[in-house]
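We now fix the convention by which a protein and its fold are recorded. Here is one such record, which you should read through line by line:

>
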Amino acid sequence: MELGENVQDAMIREAKEEVGLDVEAVKLMDVFDSVTLDEQGRIQYHFVIVNFLVRIVSGSLKTASDILEAKWVPLKEVEGYNLTKSFRTFFEKHHKRLKELALLGEK
């Protein structure tokens, strides 16, 4: 986030900068803390991860210079990928709802 930027605006900006998509927020889905400890058990990193359900307005999926790859993956294949701990937690918690939303999008 940039100084003074609200969370939703940061998400919209990051989607455009990182994967080339113009999006609008539909719903805040979840918030996770991701804490990494050092060898002495002290907090080394603490990230707050905010997950939004979004609607793509325009753009096409592409990668920024700091991203190796971006691609659309069917829900049934997601768990076969090397996921971050925070995304795996989110996906497992919301898998049923994501599947329902995907089916709605097919109609």
Remarks:
- The chain has two helices and two strands.
- The chain has a mean pLDDT of 91.
- The beta strands are 21-37, 43-59.
